[in-house]
Amino acid sequence: MSIVNLHTQGVLEAQFNPTELTESLGAKYADEVVPGLSHPVRQFVHTESQVLDVNLYFDSISAGKAQHARNSEARKFLMAACFPRRMASNLRSAGAPRLLFVWPGLISLTCTLDKLKFGYTLMNTDAAPTVFTASCTLTEIRDTLLTCEDVLNMGSERTGLAF
Length: 163
What we know:
Blueprint: E1 2-5, E2 11-13, E3 21-24, E4 27-32, E5 41-47, E6 51-59, H1 65-80, E7 99-103, E8 107-123, E9 129-140, H2 148-154, E10 156-157
Parallel strand pairs: 8-10
Antiparallel strand pairs: 1-2, 1-7, 3-6, 4-5, 6-9, 7-8, 8-9
């Protein structure tokens, strides 16, 4: 599994594949009340953005200083994805960077990191975390129309669409 920062081109690869991935999606409907009808008419409004909840596990106990440094960089990579970029030229580029989440053979989505939560479970003698979990909520960004036929064709691997 990997996450690419589409602004900096930085890449975060999972140390171990997460044991669990939650994928959620929904369709929004409006109930239109028609006088005299026994029930409201359901009108499709839009499809909600696909949301992924993934927990990444980082452990540098037995791997030494090099792994501890990589885990520290991974933590900064994830935190930076929640902040706006410097010197944006327009409103679209003023937000936090877009990410590309790739789980080979299953998911490839352009997204934003909407929630990030770290859980530290073990520290070294310098009080630096050696074991921690990063809980990430990633929400898909779609800039073009995505149709039923597209999803039947590609599922959640949206690499063929221009976003």
